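Why this split exists: single-chain examples teach little about how molecules sit against one another. For that reason, every record in the complexes split bundles all components of an assembly together and asks for one structure covering all of them. Below is a record exactly as it appears in the raw files.
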Amino acid sequence: MAKLINGKEISQQIKDELKEKVSALKAQGKNICLAVIQVGNDPASSVYVGNKKKACAYIGIESRAFELPEETTEEELLSIIKDLNEDDGVHGILVQLPVPKHINEEKIINAISPKKDVDGFHPESVGSLCIGRPGFVSCTPAGIIQLLKRSEIDIEGKHCVVIGRSNIVGKPMALLMLRENATVTICHSRTKNLKEICKEADILIVAIGKPKMIDASYVKDGATVIDVGIHRDANNKLCGDVDFASVEPVAGAITPVPGGVGPMTIAMLMNNCVEAAEREE
Ligand SMILES: Nc1nc(=O)c2c([nH]1)NC[C@@H]1CN(c3ccc(C(=O)N[C@@H](CCC(=O)O)C(=O)O)cc3)C=[N+]21
């Protein structure tokens, strides 16, 4: 039976640590503010944005919400970002993705000042991570590192297999594991012998976006399995990319969905906001 990696509990720990830091900053007269922009009203996005606002309120970070209609133009959004870039009272800017199809996502990401890029999506942030310079790190992969460290799972020298090569999860995840001295393999939809490679993993990080695709036949006995996926199944229940019931008996440690990686993403977003304010000095 696998040890359950409790993301809800660990994210709570991190939020409590941040809450203390924020009150110390407040005592020095420093107020931290995150601007959260949502274009349109995709219900999943609304849930995530709501969770982010709640986390801000808990920690003592001011959240400035922009709920923009679906028809908002790219120019309008860029103009709001420009104003927020220039606003000294704002430390972090988050544009919830995905944005509607008529808006160019890349242009929006590039418009956010790297100093306020608490998502870590800007090319300068990604480049900094790649060459080991300070900068904001994408929240989901950063949260997974915290999950592993705080669960006392060794990374150094271990074979880590990441399934998925997106710019916001797979690629930064591989870079972070490399920084922690793991031996890293990146797999994706065109990988030919996926199962054989996964079976070699000491740490298997799954971010493929296919509900319950990874079952026990992909997992080495005692491996750590991290599930980044989040889907709703036929009964409207949340599930991940990993078939939890199948994998749990063979894994050494495993994250659940919900209550695994998701809450960590938000905790690390809060961490990046506090860092943004601290770096300002
Ligand atoms: N600019 C931007 N930054 C993001 O960080 C970003 C984004 N866009 N777009 C969408 C993804 C997804 N994401 C999640 C955040 C929290 C949970 C979360 O709180 N999950 C809970 C369950 C939530 C539920 O009930 O649905 C859990 O897993 O326990 C999940 C997913 C942030 N993202």
